[in-house]
Amino acid sequence: MILILKTGASEDQVAHVIARVEELGMRAHLSRGTYRTIVGIIGDENRIREEPLRAIPGVAEVVPVLPPYKLASLDAHPEPSVVDVSGVKIGGGNLGMIAGPCSVEDEDRMFRIARSVRDAGANLFRGGAYKPRTSPYAFQGLGEDGLKLLRDVGDRFGMPVVTEVTDVRCVDLVARYADMIQIGARNMQNFVLLTEVGRTNRPVLLKRGMSATVTDLLMSAEYVLSQGNPNVVLCERGVKGFDPATRNLFDVSAVPLVQTLSHLPIIVDPSHATGRPDLIPACALAGVAAGADGVHIEVHDCPEVAKSDGPQALLPDQYRELAAKIRQMAELLGKTISPLPQALT
Ligand code: PEP
Ligand code: MN
Fold it and tell me: Which atom of ligand 1 is the closest one to the Cα of 238?
């Protein structure tokens, strides 16, 4: 940690800054420049991170040396992490291919969609049983019935399943049915929810909040990691933009950026990022080309009757075509798409 003092900080203030640093159990290294004086703090930065150092008279700026996310950082774990979702690996050269409808819907449809995405090469099946909707009048999900159905479909096709939890009261219930728990964009900073999923042993798919910085995202991951759950996969799903032509602004640069900061896998979700089926394939491929550890795509066999997010769903055939291109790109990049743990049918 480095303290940059104000121009014209008095000698009394400099002495007080040093005394305060020493009071905190650290050592101070004073350095006087032509215009500014700086105080280097020597010792474990994490011990004083939460101290209000900028409130010390004479201090203009506090510059941390280490990132505020300890466990999520490359310092903690220099090699890329591989998250194992019931046998399907994500990260470290393994691509997660998450596909399925936005919401869990009726049984026949779920079976049809699962079969089509599995045959196309998806290795994780998704569907929301609890939907965080902007309108309280919109479809809210099938709840526990939806979880049961998702589990049945996953078991039938040998695909691990991922589903969202929106409420801290449902964490244990969702963890019972799901192989991976999704924290949606709207809950990325629901710290109580993050803490609770951190106490489960289920891998977590953590989506970037729509107004969240990359640091915010990594700090949210830190909540989960700090509870003892090391299995976090990040997801770039677009941030709020100014142009209504796309649903969100796909921040593909977040992928390589995160990889310079963290060992956690990061995947892309071009479905929510663009909201447009005609843009999804190009953005999915861009994400993989940028180094993403997987792709999360909504697929529906009849988007016009979908309970949620129909307008952004890819048809099964469109998904098959895209998945084939992703496979080619994976090969080009020397990456692997984890096969399904057990193919039942
Ligand atoms: C979803 O995955 O269906 C979803 C609601 O995503 P997000 O939280 O990214 O909006
Ligand atoms: Mn959706």
Answer: 9
